[in-house]
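Re: Re: token formats

Sure, here are both.
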Amino acid sequence: MAIPEYWLSYNNGAEKLRFPVPPPVVNVSSPFGNTDIDIVNGKEFTIIGDRGLKEFSFQSFLPRHYNSTYCDYVKIPDPYVFINWIERWRNSKRPLRFIVTGTNINHAVTVRDFNYDLEKAGEPGDIYFSIVLKEYEFLTLGKKVDVKKPNTPTKPTDRPPVVNKGNTASPSGTYIVKSGDSLTKIAFNVYKNANHWKDIHNANKKVIGNNPDELKIGMKLVLPK
């Protein structure tokens, strides 16, 4: 029997993430909208309703390095990149798809809760998390209704708000490398975006060298704006 694979995908499968360490158990909640009514002589009657939306909850961790004893595949993503993707998908306010291969779990979902610990004692770089996903029902309208908005004159001086489409991070200064640090971890903690690790590496190649993984405790890194 094949080992189940746990996947989250976004934008009709254009972007996918596979959980590197399978959770020990996935809790599935499947409510039903039944209503109990007390009638004459203390008897109870049940009005059977419709099935509610399912919820899936589980816990696992994202290892910093591959380990054949618990990882499902070799080229595992960096934990901070994994976290950053899920946060970006959730912020888009669009449904994801949760799939567990070899099972009947294949549902559009929304992320209802996502908690994680950035570091656990004795396991630097590993991220432990818990997640709650809820089944998403696509709304189908029988008839399209056009709603006209009243015309509101705008003042000549009114201008649309300026939207900054660039990187929101603007820290500057220096950072001293500590035990368990990686460039993606530093980028996540400083810029709240693990993808900025390349900017930190490019600004500090004379100190780090060409290999971004060769960080040493005590290194003084420049944090670009």
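Second one below.
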Amino acid sequence: MFATAIRYIGRKPKPKMKPVELKTPPEQTQTITRVIFDILKEHGPLTIADTWERVKDVGLRGLTSKRHMKIVLRWMRERQKLKLICNHVGPQKQFLYTTWFTKPNTTQTKLGTHTSWPNMKQIMPGSDISRPKSS
């Protein structure tokens, strides 16, 4: 118990993250955030990759890269325009961005349609995941 207390006290605290400051003009920031918000409101909870694909389809000129979009998403989360939810599917986690007005039942329908997840039977051949193990 004494060693646990020493380890706990010896750790450095997590550094505070400073607020995001966008370097784009306010008009351009408003356009970008409105487009991203509309995409997330219309198409439900989306991952960063799915959101980036939708933004590319729209053809938004203000976003220069996926990294820039991630910064804007973080800025929108700080201002509580978006929320980040985490869904656990087996050993994997899926982080989804959504608006505050999206119904929770849409998050459950989107889970099985994610295309970038590997098939577990391909990873572990010979195992049957759907069948519970008997003791």
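Residues 26-43 form the longest helix (18 residues). The chain is about 45% helix and 10% strand.
- S.
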